[in-house]
Design brief:
With about 325 residues, this protein is of the alpha+beta class. It contains 10 helices and 15 strands. The chain has one domain.
Length: about 325
Amino acid sequence: MDETKLERLLAEDERPVDTAAGLRRFRGSIALGNAEAYRAPARRRWTQGLAAAAAVAALFAGLTITGVADSFFTIFQPRQVAPVSIGRADLTGLPDLSQYGTLTIVTHPAYRQAATVDQARADTGIAPLSPAALPAGVPADSRIYAVSRGEATFRFDEAKLAAAAGQVSRTPPPMPPAIAASTLNVSGGPAVVQSYGGSFDPKLDPKSDPRAMPAGLPALLIAQSKAPVVRSDGATVDELRAYMLAQPGISPELAAQIRAIGDPAQTLLIPIPMDLASGRSVTVRGTRGVFVGDSTGIGSAVVWVADGNVNVVAGSLAEKDLLAVADSLR
């Protein structure tokens, strides 16, 4: 197979990532979608739900971090997941984190197809899990991909925030000295991804090639990644969470959900856009997980953390089939 779309995107190290522009475009699309507008088709709603969840995931990483060798200490390493409901007003009101500091990519993750399961294990150190049985309609042939570890830093910048505040109507509270002097180090991976049916090859046309799934979704996708780790050289969990929850655009309801998380230092929040997706807590392989999607077979995912890995099983399956696959992994 030719290079996948994701592989080529990850290889383009020289392209700058404009997070501010991306968030502005996302907010614009939400603002244009009036509450009384037509209900999007089910597949489009699922795709929109995934995009919305991804757009706010970065914010929740900041809201959940906590915890010195040299100048850095570990502040966040998830051992469980929890759903958080996000309304339309929350989506449009989220603060632009690019105004709070500077994100620097230290190591870009490399993504490539592995020839065998053993090769993927050797490349990542992760033993790929396989389902004991596949639901009807899911082809047995699969592709496996190895993703290397990625790393980035985020340095808070009080002057940058002050300059940005002068250009907007809502002024954030002053940045506490402990946060203004802090840098966060974020690492994730390596990871293994198995795809059943469909293809990530952009040259395949869903209308003419049976290997290509509609909207680019494989029939089934199984991903395992080393849990992300966040380290700080100053700010603590209480300081970071209190400050982020005090930002304009964070609704009292959203703040209350996040404050109710029992152990924010070890809980990965899964944002659920209420207008675009559904989500709830489930039990997966004896562990607390989060199910996202619907039961129509259009698209769904289940996420859980076990043995130091964040696990995702997703695809165009009904909820009962998806959970059955997750529970059968060996």
